[in-house]
Write a structure and sequence with these properties.
The complex is a heterodimer of chains A (260) and B (259).
Chain A lengths: L7 E4 L5 H12 L3 E6 L2 H11 L5 E5 L5 H15 L4 E4 L15 H29 L2 E6 L12 H20 L5 E8 L5 H13 L5 H11 L8 H12 L10 E4 L7
Parallel strand pairs in A: 1-2, 1-4, 2-3, 4-5, 5-6, 6-7
Helix pairs in contact in A: 1-8, 3-4, 4-5, 6-7
Chain B lengths: L7 E4 L5 H12 L3 E6 L2 H11 L5 E5 L5 H15 L4 E3 L16 H29 L2 E6 L12 H20 L5 E8 L5 H13 L4 H11 L8 H12 L10 E4 L7
Parallel strand pairs in B: 1-2, 1-4, 2-3, 4-5, 5-6, 6-7
Helix pairs in contact in B: 1-8, 3-4, 4-5, 6-7
Classes of the chains: A alpha/beta (260), B alpha/beta (259).
Chain lengths: 260, 259
């Protein structure tokens, strides 16, 4: 018997890293999960590895596109009859440049992926959840949602913004059986961080990827990056019925990095 | 099989309210638990209700006394052989009044009950946790550890102090397998709240009902919290999965705290 038996979840960016760990943890607790990602081949590999049969499905598409985010939610409801848990998880450092050199086009890409994707997904999910008077929205924010680093202003700004969005929405639906929370992980060596970390390191004036990881680790109390499983455990807890009074929380999973 | 199998926990003020809910949740996840309180008769009723056999043990003590705090922690190690999880949970305040009228005794009482007791039990438990390179400290703070209300400055200041203590300690032991976090619940109608709420309300110019209503209205869920809300988070932080969460002040307040 799992803590999420009978629940239906969807997760943007769910085929790898944090999203995948959340998907695996939800499946282990009995939920049905729709994962989203850009690459259909990777999606198929993900489903094969999950071995969850009808309890897992894949929805292909780029989550920085409104049609894809809304499509994921509509697909989930159509296929499984409802949506209990909406994890808006995908995102990352797309563009590295100091504010003085950032172009409008780069800025828009960052805003679409990290902020608008969360807004589009949250809005669509709430339209389904409000009439049902039940739901869980879990946003993957970041330690950079509370702090700032040079060279990645788009990421820092959009993660701050989603924290505000979460707090506002939590108060709008607090009496309707719906909770809205953000998880704020510290640095985790995900595929995205491995892919974009070298550029981020240059933008921050650091000597390569390892120096970037070392810097984040040294800012923490535990002196190591976090792990995807640590985020997944919090996501499971927030997704349960028992967490009905936890809302508007910016839940740190950062090894003691953020000051507040 | 539970997420706390084999772990030993110590909870001050564990015979009722939040502490008892945490004890029950820890026992459900396989831990052995020492509960502390002042009243052995009250404790016996709580222990009977927990139905956990020899996995639960009571140690009497007044947490406002340093020697009792040390006795409770060392007694846990003496009884169960180790201490993995320390929950300084007891707390409250008395004789609330605006700062301009607050007595030294009232400020002292809240600081002793909330802050000093947390410091004493944290220090005593770290002495066991550091050599074993494993530990979880879950200090009971409050939404009032992040925000402030008039006329309860003693409570507010002592809970803010607990948050600072946790942040510092978490950085001292972060690489030793020990996490230190503060739990910040919103208002819960515990026995302590029922006993002290009317006095706090009066100091704020409110009725007791009005005080509870004020807390509920500030939240997103428009109701008070429950002891089980806190226990849910306590289990997560105490488990293996909580290894990467430290120095945090986790809000369990229905969306009240602004950060």
């Amino acid at each position: 018997m799992g803590k999420l038996d009978g629940k239906v979840a969807c997760i943007t960016g769910g085929t790898r890293s944090i999203g995948r760990a959340i998907a695996d943890a939800f499946l282990a607790e009995g939920a049905t999960v729709v994962v989203n990602g850009r690459d259909a081949a990777k999606g198929q590999v993900c489903l094969n590895e999950m071995k969850a049969g009808d309890r897992a499905a894949f929805f292909a598409g780029d989550s920085s596109k409104q049609s894809v985010v809304e499509g994921l939610i509509d697909f989930t409801i159509e296929k499984y009859g409802k949506l209990d848990i909406c994890c808006l998880n995908s995102g990352g450092v797309q563009m590295t440049a100091p504010v003085a050199q950032m172009t409008d086009e780069e800025w828009a890409l960052e805003v679409d992926w990290n902020l608008n994707h969360v807004f589009w997904g949250m809005r669509r999910a709430l339209q389904h959840m409000i009439p049902r008077q039940a739901g869980r929205i879990i946003v993957t924010s970041s330690v950079e949602g509370k702090l700032g680093k040079p060279g990645i202003p788009g990421y820092v700004t959009t993660k701050h913004a989603v924290n505000g969005l979460v707090k506002s929405a939590a108060h709008e639906v607090g009496t309707l059986g719906i909770t809205v929370n953000a998880i704020l992980p510290g640095i985790i060596e995900t595929d995205i961080v491995r892919a974009t970390g070298p550029d981020s390191a240059i933008a921050m004036g650091l000597d390569g990827y390892d120096a970037l990881i070392d810097m984040f680790a040294s800012e923490s109390a535990i002196k190591r990056p976090n792990k995807v499983e640590e985020v997944a455990a919090v996501a499971v807890m927030l997704a349960t019925d028992a967490a009905r009074n936890l809302t508007g929380v910016l839940f740190p999973v950062d090894g003691g990095t953020m000051p507040y | 099989m539970g997420v706390l199998d084999g772990r030993v926990a110590c909870i001050t003020g564990g015979t009722r309210g939040i502490g008892l809910a945490i004890a029950k949740a820890f026992l459900d996840e396989g831990a052995k638990v020492v509960i502390n309180g002042r009243d052995a008769a009250k404790a016996q009723r709580s222990i009977d209700g927990l139905k956990a056999g020899d996995r639960v043990h009571f140690i009497a003590g007044d947490v406002k006394k340093k020697e009792d705090c040390i006795k409770v922690v060392d007694g846990t190690v003496a009884h169960f052989g180790r201490i993995d999880i320390m929950v300084p949970n007891a707390g409250g305040g008395s004789d609330y009044a605006p700062v301009v009228d607050m007595t030294d005794e009232s400020m002292q009482d809240a600081m002793t009950w909330n802050f000093w007791h947390t410091f004493w039990t944290m220090q005593a438990s770290l002495k066991h946790m550091i050599p074993q390179q494993y530990g979880r400290i879950l200090a009971m703070s409050s939404v009032e550890g992040k925000v402030g209300k008039p006329a309860i400055s003693s409570y507010v200041a002592s809970k803010h102090a607990i948050n600072g203590l946790c942040k510092s300690a978490s950085k001292e032991v972060g690489t030793l397998g020990i996490t230190v976090n503060a739990l910040c619940p919103g208002a819960i109608e515990t026995d302590v709240m029922m006993a002290q709420g009317p006095g706090a309300a009066e100091a704020m110019g409110l009725t007791y009902e009005g005080l509870l209503n004020l807390f509920a209205q500030e939240s997103a869920v428009k109701r008070l919290n429950e002891c089980e809300d806190v226990a849910l988070v306590a289990v997560l932080l105490a488990s293996e999965a909580g290894a990467g969460i430290t120095g945090s002040m986790i809000s369990i307040d229905g969306g009240t705290s602004p950060y």
